């Protein structure tokens, strides 16, 4: 791993990225962890600025948390070609950077945005990810920790995932909003100001 995070060449994603997307945002509060930068993030060098990121911004803003109030990073910091899922060795190569971001940002709660982030941060049971998210919301699955920080799982905020419904008709966007509210509640309970 390079000493300079912006020049990392530890996995093949360095060959196709435009630039490394580094963590950004406020330390000491909520840290959103996504799967990987997409096209907009790759071009701008800023995380969570595409449609999925803007959706998350909107959900958190509804809860009183402005974009400047929380931090963002991804499981891998370079965009996979064609937005494919990051491969296991790429995730492994970037895991030190993720741990370093958590150490540096000292969040009081982590919001795992989508299954890929949750897989890296948590030990997932053998059940569909969405059922795990709902069980966590209902309290039948306890909140797990990553680096000592509580992690709340939520559905991915990409349009494809966000606009789906469960078999019982519940909209994933509603489950996502409830998960985000759970994370903000954990944040408030930890003594951090959740609102401006
Ligand atoms: S994805 Fe992570 S490990 Fe791979 S080159 Fe980018 S910063 Fe380095």
Automatic annotation (TrEMBL):
Record-listed E.C. numbers: 3.2.2.27
Matches recorded under SUPFAM superfamilies: Uracil-DNA glycosylase-like
Domain Uracil-DNA glycosylase-like residues, every copy: 22-176
UniProt-recorded Gene Ontology molecular function terms: 4 iron, 4 sulfur cluster binding; metal ion binding; uracil DNA N-glycosylase activity
GO biological process terms on file: DNA repair
PANTHER family: TYPE-4 URACIL-DNA GLYCOSYLASE, TYPE-5 URACIL-DNA GLYCOSYLASE
Record protein name field: Type-4 uracil-DNA glycosylase
Species this protein is from: Natronocella acetinitrilica
Lineage, top ranks: Bacteria, Pseudomonadati, Pseudomonadota, Gammaproteobacteria, Chromatiales
